[in-house]
């Protein structure tokens, strides 16, 4: 078994019309053994930016603390919150620093640009590999053990300019459909839809067998 599949888990992010969504499953396992079903893999960076980190759970926690420190230092120095695109490059450089002994994480970044940026409330999604090679997408990005299934579901369901409610329904059906076809992900899911006014967070029930 690949070390990337040791703990299992999957994350997907999608763009909408002035909104963006990111969702993950809640399973953490030790190979085929399920340890818990409340393991959220998506973490807030700012009120408008989130990162999902499927992969090795110990590296997920290490990077969560490192990104929290680096974004706090950025905010102290710049006196403003970090923009999602800037944060994506910070993630890339952090991973590339350890390219000869990489973190076993495939990060997914989702957020909205700030009101003071050149394009306010612009949806942004990106994903990276183990050594920080960024993939900027205009539709959706996926990561984790159910990546192949997520690609298939997302390509069939995603449309342009989805409103927040439509985006929630689309990403939920995409994730749940993929989780039913992957033994290392599932056992519930959590979805966050980021809009200019608020973050809508909902927990989904999934198959528990």
Automatic annotation (TrEMBL):
<dbReference type="GO" id="GO:0005634">
    <property type="term" value="C:nucleus"/>
</dbReference>
<dbReference type="GO" id="GO:0043161">
    <property type="term" value="P:proteasome-mediated ubiquitin-dependent protein catabolic process"/>
</dbReference>
<dbReference type="InterPro" id="IPR023333">
    <property type="entry name" value="Proteasome_suB-type"/>
</dbReference>
<keyword id="KW-0539">Nucleus</keyword>
<comment type="subunit">
    <text>Component of the proteasome complex.</text>
</comment>
<keyword id="KW-0963">Cytoplasm</keyword>
<dbReference type="InterPro" id="IPR016050">
    <property type="entry name" value="Proteasome_bsu_CS"/>
</dbReference>
<dbReference type="GO" id="GO:0019774">
    <property type="term" value="C:proteasome core complex, beta-subunit complex"/>
</dbReference>
<protein>
    <recommendedName>
        <fullName>Proteasome subunit beta</fullName>
    </recommendedName>
</protein>
<dbReference type="Pfam" id="PF00227">
    <property type="entry name" value="Proteasome"/>
</dbReference>
<comment type="function">
    <text>Component of the proteasome, a multicatalytic proteinase complex which is characterized by its ability to cleave peptides with Arg, Phe, Tyr, Leu, and Glu adjacent to the leaving group at neutral or slightly basic pH. The proteasome has an ATP-dependent proteolytic activity.</text>
</comment>
<comment type="similarity">
    <text>Belongs to the peptidase T1B family.</text>
</comment>
<dbReference type="InterPro" id="IPR001353">
    <property type="entry name" value="Proteasome_sua/b"/>
</dbReference>
<dbReference type="InterPro" id="IPR029055">
    <property type="entry name" value="Ntn_hydrolases_N"/>
</dbReference>
<keyword id="KW-0647">Proteasome</keyword>
<dbReference type="GO" id="GO:0005737">
    <property type="term" value="C:cytoplasm"/>
</dbReference>
<dbReference type="InterPro" id="IPR033811">
    <property type="entry name" value="Proteasome_beta_3"/>
</dbReference>
<comment type="subunit">
    <text>The 26S proteasome consists of a 20S proteasome core and two 19S regulatory subunits. The 20S proteasome core is composed of 28 subunits that are arranged in four stacked rings, resulting in a barrel-shaped structure. The two end rings are each formed by seven alpha subunits, and the two central rings are each formed by seven beta subunits. The catalytic chamber with the active sites is on the inside of the barrel.</text>
</comment>
